[in-house]
């Protein structure tokens, strides 16, 4: 249904009368049924029951009739929310997350809840309870995570947009693996109220779309600064290539990302290599320490606020993913991270953010550009290999720790495994980043 349709084109089709909201819904349901084997969704019953109908009182609204799906750690009033773990089965949300409420007010239609890595603690979306999410762009390979179901649903053409959450790359990694666009805003730009968390310091809702233009369109509708112009009319600028992020790349990743950079240079971007050794060292301190430590306060507190405080131990006792279970229970037993470790990591993140601010200002850098994931899309057989997690999040974790906006764009040809190229901007420069990404998208498509 949506393989060649963007949010922008579907909105135009509805405005012109070429498509109705009901027709879009029926075609999406048909695509979902046909692609059921991808395990994109978590549902307690048939897809029709979880797929809302357009609110005719909102005809003429910017997103009227446009379906979107959500990672199943995001609350939608009246629908189950599982966070991908069996201990939360039967939990029905009594209110919408703020991002859901905003999209509904714009006329968009909830199409269902997406499968995910259990408790958002991983990058494969191999879920023992609801099945492994398939990768429609690379059959037999991982869809990425933890928002893997969101990426697969968009890449497969079931929905034109999805909302995931990103802690250390959990929107951008699956977007890169599935050959679509993934955007994480400046931390705190979009509220996480109504979302089952991992880490208050690192979590953010994020967008998965087919194009950067769609991400910009949605950002303008969702964000309070959407009326503000970009600082410069020409979105081309000076790009920094962080040295640590361009090392130890697999061949196809290096080839397609460098090809994209060369085209950007020919189009007028100035690209310079950056020595980011200090930033890279600081960044490593927050990769595991902060999210693992914060999970044990943020997750229980959120369940309590949503009326599910009695589920906390049930969740911990019924984790099915062995790796996730080992991490959780080791920390419950006091074997992993101390308060002193956490305090030190938070202090280092504060220094990191100052260093990143300085990197942009003193080097005169407008954007950072780097391969989203240093390695090729892993095969399903590689899912449980020790070290895979650290390899995959090596580059994406910086934006999460530094609280800066980041977008990944697909850069590989259609006959190759997907490869993503990330573009970051300074904190608060979300719209400028998205404007530049749309320009780069056009350059790479020409």
3D architecture notes:
- This protein has helices spanning 7-16, 21-34, 47-50, 98-105, 148-155, 172-178, 212-222, 251-266, 277-284, 289-305, 312-317, 322-332, 339-362, 388-393, 397-402, 430-445, and strands at 67-71, 109-114, 126-127, 131-132, 161-166, 181-184, 204-209, 238-242, 270-274, 367-371, 406-410, 420-424.
- The protein has 446 residues and is of the alpha/beta class.
- The chain has one domain (7-445): Amidase signature (AS) enzymes (Alpha-Beta Complex), CATH 3.90.1300.
- It has a ten-stranded mixed beta sheet with strand order 2-1-5-7-6-11-12-10-8-9, with helices on both faces. A two-stranded antiparallel sheet has the order 3-4.
- Helix 4 links the parallel strand 1 (67-71) and strand 2.
- Helix 5 (148-155) runs parallel beside helix 6 (172-178), helix 7 (212-222) runs antiparallel to helix 16 and helix 9 (277-284) packs antiparallel against helix 13 (339-362).
């Amino acid at each position: 249904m949506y393989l060649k349709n963007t949010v922008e084109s579907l909105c135009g089709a509805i405005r012109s009368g070429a498509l109705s909201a009901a027709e879009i819904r029926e075609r999406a349901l048909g695509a979902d049924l046909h692609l059921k084997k991808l395990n994109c969704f978590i549902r307690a019953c048939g897809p029709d029951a979880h797929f809302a109908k357009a609110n005719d009182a909102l005809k003429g609204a910017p997103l009227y009739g446009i379906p979107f799906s959500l990672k199943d750690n995001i609350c939608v009033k009246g629908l189950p929310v599982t966070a991908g773990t069996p201990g939360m089965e039967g939990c029905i949300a009594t209110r919408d997350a703020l991002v859901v409420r905003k999209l509904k007010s714009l006329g968009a239609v909830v199409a269902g809840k997406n499968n995910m890595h259990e408790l958002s603690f991983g990058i494969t979306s191999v879920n023992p309870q609801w099945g492994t999410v398939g990768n429609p762009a690379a059959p037999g390979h991982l869809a990425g995570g933890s928002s893997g179901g969101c990426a697969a649903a968009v890449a497969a053409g079931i929905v034109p947009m999805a909302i995931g959450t990103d802690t250390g790359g959990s929107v951008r990694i699956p977007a890169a693996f599935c050959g679509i666009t993934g955007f994480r805003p400046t931390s705190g730009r979009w509220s996480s109220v109504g979302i089952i968390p991992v880490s208050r310091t690192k979590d953010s809702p994020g967008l998965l779309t087919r194009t950067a233009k769609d991400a910009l369109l949605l950002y303008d509708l969702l964000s309070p600064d959407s009326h503000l112009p970009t600082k410069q009319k020409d979105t081309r600028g000076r790009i920094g290539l962080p040295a640590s992020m361009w090392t130890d790349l697999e061949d196809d990743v290096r080839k397609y990302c460098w090809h994209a950079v060369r085209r950007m240079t020919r189009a007028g971007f100035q690209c310079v290599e950056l020595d980011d050794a200090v930033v890279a060292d600081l960044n490593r301190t927050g990769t595991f320490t902060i999210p693992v430590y914060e999970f044990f306060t943020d997750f229980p507190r959120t369940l309590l606020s949503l009326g599910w405080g009695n589920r906390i131990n049930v969740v911990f006792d019924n984790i099915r993913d062995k790796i996730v279970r080992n991490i959780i229970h080791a920390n419950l037993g006091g074997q992993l991270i101390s308060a002193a470790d956490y305090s030190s990591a938070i202090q280092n993140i504060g220094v990191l953010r100052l260093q990143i601010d300085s990197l942009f200002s003193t080097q005169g850098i407008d954007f950072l550009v780097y391969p989203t994931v240093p390695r090729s899309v892993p095969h399903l057989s590689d899912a449980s290999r020790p070290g895979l997690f650290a390899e995959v999040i090596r580059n994406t974790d910086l934006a999460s720790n530094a609280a800066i906006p980041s977008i990944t764009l697909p850069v590989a040809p259609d006959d190759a495994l997907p490869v993503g190229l990330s573009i970051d901007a300074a904190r608060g420069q979300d719209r400028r980043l998205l404007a530049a990404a749309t320009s780069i998208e056009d350059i790479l498509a020409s």
